[in-house]
Automatic annotation (TrEMBL):
UniProt-listed InterPro entries: DUF5819 (IPR043857)
Source species taxonomy: Bacteria, Bacillati, Actinomycetota, Actinomycetes, Kitasatosporales
Pfam families, per database record: DUF5819
Name of this protein: Secreted protein
Length: 203
């Protein structure tokens, strides 16, 4: 009985220590840069990513100041070696249609593609090369989102494609009262990503 109580106390102490360490590490991750977070940034990132990432702003929300249009096209290699490329498909338009006039819009429609793209830009340079394990994971994540959206649009045939390519057009938010549909702003960035091999879930 005494041994059981000692084991229970040890388990409780370990749980409390792990909880305290988690709270401290996540706090240092979301807090403004300071000497402690700078000194132990490698250990903090190793604990936080990828499962405990925090990206909210409690006291200073950071809304988007630009509109991004994410388009995708696929390519399939024929038996003769030729590559057949599809037309561009507007992924962002599908999300906007799912949100517009909805009293309780889906969180997925609002944020999945947007957050995947912002995470991609945070982890990749302009050369679109993944230089870390997290960058490679984000690239696969974005690849899977786009592939799934195209497959759904085509009735399940999108995963038959061999390659997928994304194009992201960034425009400033239109001024209040302007007609953004009839008079779209000039793109501030028109980024064409390289062709990626279509991946299957779990790979």
């Amino acid at each position: 009985m005494r041994l059981l109580r000692a084991g229970l106390r040890t388990a409780v102490v370990l749980c409390l220590a792990a909880t305290l360490a988690h709270v401290v590490l996540v706090f240092l991750h979301v807090a403004p840069p300071n000497p402690v977070s700078r000194r132990y940034s490698q250990q903090i990132d190793a604990w936080v990513y990828p499962l405990f990432e925090q990206n909210w702003r409690l006291f200073a929300p950071n809304p988007d100041s630009v509109n991004r249009q994410v388009l995708a096209r696929t390519a399939h290699t024929g038996s003769d070696g030729s590559m057949r490329v599809s037309a561009w498909f507007d992924l962002s338009a599908v999300d906007r249609a799912a949100v517009e006039h909805q009293a309780f819009p889906s969180h997925t429609a609002q944020n999945l593609l947007r957050r995947a793209w912002s995470s991609y830009t945070e982890t990749h340079g302009q050369d679109d090369k993944a230089r870390s394990e997290r960058a490679a994971m984000i690239q696969t994540y974005l690849n899977n989102i786009a592939s799934d959206r195209v497959a759904e649009h085509r009735g399940g045939s999108g995963r038959d494609a061999d390659f997928i390519q994304l194009r992201v057009i960034t425009r400033p938010v239109a001024a209040p009262g302007s007609d953004a549909v009839d008079n779209p702003s000039k793109p501030v960035e028109n980024r064409l990503l390289p062709w990626w091999k279509v991946t299957s879930h779990g790979k």
